[in-house]
């Protein structure tokens, strides 16, 4: 999992920024055709990296994703899924991604 995060961080750090001249923050309104062309160009250039070659490797049980919980009653589900306070202590205790990733990987 840490290796995947490091790989994603490395990709984000090496990603390029595409600017569309004479546009503000509302690209869909200001330049819809230019935005479409930029997104389409990105997808065409990175098609191979975005494809999942082996669908079996993406099964939840192989990815370590827990199965969805089953609840007997609506009240039990609402109790389990109600909003909870943010676990700030746990978030602060986690190592920062920069401290875990090294230039050669994890």
3D structure, described in words:
By secondary structure, this protein is mainly α. The chain has one domain. 54% of the residues lie in helices and 0% in strands. It contains 8 helices and no strands. The longest helix is centred in the middle third of the chain and has 14 residues, at 32-45.
List the quaternary state of the chains. Answer: single chain
Structural class: mainly alpha
Number of helices: 8
The poorly predicted ranges are: none
**N- and C-termini, Cα separation:** 10 Å
Rg, nearest Å: 21 Å
Number of strands: 0
The profile of the biggest β sheet is: none
What order do the helices and strands follow? HHHHHHHH
What would the principal axes of the Cα set say about the shape? extended
Features:
106 residues; mainly alpha; 8 helices; 54% helix; 0% strand; extended
Could you give a short description of this structure?
The chain has one domain (2-100). It has 106 residues and is mainly alpha-helical.
